[in-house]
Amino acid sequence: MLKGFVFDLDGVITDTAQYHYQAWKACAARIGITIDPTVNEALKGISRMESLEVILRHGHRENDFTPAEKEALATEKNNEYVGLLANMTPADILPGMQAFLEALKAADYKLALASASKNAPTILARLGLADYFDAMVDPATLTHGKPDPEIFVKGAELVGIKPSEAVGLEDAVAGIQAINAAGEFSVGIGDPTILHEADLNFAATSEVSLAAIENAFESKNG
Ligand code: BG6
Ligand code: MG
């Protein structure tokens, strides 16, 4: 029986991917690396330090920096990113998502947040959505990042439900893989050819339908 939803944040509830991209692009440019949207796609859902490693490998500079220098680069990027977040308001909630959260609360589903971002609490507060969630996974407590299932398993656990009773929502390939590995029902939001491993896909947040998710979940698990 479906009892709760475990949400990714970036790209599902709000479009911070553009801000991550802008901040990484500037950071990479300072060390002579150019990144494009294809590289950006690979940064979705993975941690800050993993993102930096992807960028360094892309620029063939993976052996050029000490751990302390890498920390400094990641901090620089984060400072720039946090500066961009300061302008966020509830107007930055992706189309349809507030109504979807309202519908979930009205139906008494448990809601957990499973974002890899250490900035997730700030973002939810800026969007005015913190009260919708019963629990938030703290990414600092995790051993493995997406596509490892840990964050989605923990999200369900924090709201007292089994993975088999949960739906996970994601916009990243690594995230869909994490949800599937956790044994939850995966809902992809975005290009269905990119997110083809999802149990159910919506091309955009405006198309997300609770009834469609409930039906598909029933068909798979019922
Ligand atoms: C995820 C984003 O939500 O958070 C990734 O999709 C990002 O792109 C990760 O790297 C970590 O975010 P932060 O805010 O902790 O640097
Ligand atoms: Mg995401």
Automatic annotation (TrEMBL):
Its EC number is 5.4.2.6. Keywords: Isomerase. One of its GO terms (molecular function) is beta-phosphoglucomutase activity. It comes from the Bacteria. The keyword Isomerase applies. Pfam families: Hydrolase. InterPro entries: B-phosphoglucomutase_hydrolase (IPR010976), Beta-PGM (IPR010972), HAD-like_sf (IPR036412), HAD-like_SPP (IPR051806), HAD-SF_hydro_IA (IPR006439), HAD_sf (IPR023214), PGP-like_dom2 (IPR023198). The keyword Cytoplasm does not apply. PANTHER family: FRUCTOSE-1-PHOSPHATE PHOSPHATASE (PTHR43481), GLYCEROL-1-PHOSPHATE PHOSPHOHYDROLASE 1-RELATED (PTHR43481:SF4). Belongs to the HAD-like hydrolase superfamily. CbbY/CbbZ/Gph/YieH family. NCBIfam families: bPGM (TIGR01990), HAD-SF-IA-v3 (TIGR01509), PGMB-YQAB-SF (TIGR02009). This is Beta-phosphoglucomutase. It comes from Lacticaseibacillus mingshuiensis. The lineage of its organism: Bacteria, Bacillati, Bacillota, Bacilli, Lactobacillales. The gene is pgmB.
